[in-house]
Amino acid sequence: METRHLRYFVAVAEERHFGRAAARLHMAQPPLSQQIKQLEEQLGTALLTRTTRRVDLTPAGEMFLGRARNLLAELEQLAQDVRTVGEGASGVLRVGFTGTATYRLMPGIVAAARRDMPGLQLNVQGEMLTPEMEEALVEGRLDVAVLRPPVRSTAIELTFLEQDRLSVALPENHRLAGREELELSDLTDEPFVCYPPTSAVNLIVQEACRRAGFMPRVVQVARETSTLLTFVDAGLGVALLPTTARLPSSQRVTFRPLHDAPAVDLALAWKTGNDAPLVHNFLKLCEPVAHPEGNTP
After folding, report:
1. Which pLDDT tens digit goes with each residue over 83-134?
2. Which CATH number covers residue 64?
3. 108 in the same domain as 62
4. Distance between alpha carbon 160 and the CA centroid of its chain, in Å?
5. How far lies 131's CA from each of 68, 203, 220, in Å?
6. N or C: the chain end with fewer CB closer than 10 Å?
7. Is 297 part of any domain?
8. In the 8-state DSSP scheme, what is residue 212?
C-alpha cells in the first residue's frame, strides 16, 4: 500500500463517483479504477460497492476512509515539520547563560524567541561559568552560550554582543557607600566576595586589582551572581561585577561606579562547524536584543 492509494481512495470515497474523483486528481478514470481495485486486492476486502450511477462505501470502506484521512493529515504535518526544522524555525536549542546575563539579557532573548521563533523550544541553563559553557559547547551538551570571554578552545566561535564595565557592590551601610565614584585602590583593605578562580570575571578582577597595586583578600566564593550579592547584603565583603548585574540586588546592596574599571565583554559562543539553521537563526535573533537601538558593543 502506497500513499497514492490512500489519496486515490479518499478522493473516490468523498466524490462517490470515479469520474469526478479522476477529474479532481487530474488523471484518467481507468487508471484510477485499476488503482482502487489493486488496493482492495492488497487488503483482501471490498472497500466500495459500485453501481452505474454512484459509488458507496462498504463497512470496511467507512473505517478505512477515516484512517486514511488521518494518515494523510499526519504525513502532511510530518512533511511540514521537517521543512520547518530544516529551515531553522523549529526545534530544541540548549543555551547556557553567564550569571549576569541571566538577569538582564536572557528575559529579552526568551521573549524575542517566543515572538519570532514560536516553534523553538529553549532548554536554558543559567548561572554558568565560562569554562563550564566552553566545555559543554565542545562536548555538544550546549548549542549556544552567552558568556564572558576569553575562551581557550580554538573550537569555539564568538560574536560580541556588548561591552560592560565593572562596578562595586557594597553593603548599604559601608563606609564607602556615600561616595559617588570609587577607585580600585579604595578597596585595598576590603574583604572580597568573588566568583570562583576559573571565572572569566574573576580573572579580570584579579588582574585589575594587581594593576592597582594589591591583590584582593577573598573571604567567600560564589558561583551564582544572586548568591554573591546575598553575601554582600550580609556584610561579608564587597564584590566587583558587571554593571548589568544590578538587577537581582536587594535594597541593602549599594552599587558604585569605578573610575578605573576594566571592560568586561559579553559574547555569543557556539562550536566551530555547527552550521545548523536553528543555531544561526537564534544567533541573528540575539543581537537586536542586546542592542535594541542599533548600538554596537
Report:
1. 545 544 457 889 998 887 877 788 888 888 888 888 788 888 888 899 999 9
2. 1.10.10.10
3. no
4. 17
5. 53, 12, 20
6. N
7. no
8. T
